[in-house]
Design brief:
The chain is about 0% helix and about 55% strand. It is mostly beta strands. The strands form two sheets. Strands 2, 4, 5, 6, 9, 10 and 11 form a seven-stranded mixed sheet that branches. Strands 1-3-8-7 form a four-stranded antiparallel sheet, with no helix packed on it. It is globular.
Length: about 120
């Protein structure tokens, strides 16, 4: 199994930056891709960014040019660098790991609150 621990959320003013971190443990060698999702009250959880084991990335249109997903394989950690933050980015952000070996399944972090406000 895979365990995900997030950090880096908090309160930031519009135009500011935050970096979210997600440390993976357990069967980390089975992870095929990782990503970040976000969910606001009353809304469905949406994809923010993903990165595969080969380094391929994908972003939601709403964050392209502002957010960057990256990995540090030595630390088994994925990051989400968030720049030019907007109030609309206020959400709970969740780290996700996708595993196909033994049957496709997802693992989720606990969620971290990001609030963009003056």
């Amino acid at each position: 199994q895979v365990q995900l621990v997030e950090s880096g959320g908090g309160l930031v003013q519009p135009g500011g930056s935050l970096r979210l971190s997600c440390a993976a443990s357990g069967s980390i060698f089975s992870i095929n891709a990782m990503g970040w999702y976000r969910q606001a009250p009353g809304k469905q959880r949406e994809l923010v960014a993903t990165i595969t084991s080969s380094g391929s990335t994908n972003y939601a249109d709403s964050v392209k040019g502002r957010f960057t997903i990256s990995r540090d394989n030595a630390k088994n950690t994925v990051y989400l660098q968030m720049n030019s933050l907007k109030p609309e980015d206020t959400d709970v952000y969740y780290c996700n790991a996708f595993v196909v070996r033994g049957g496709a399944r997802h693992y989720w972090g606990q969620g971290t609150q990001v609030t963009v406000s003056s």
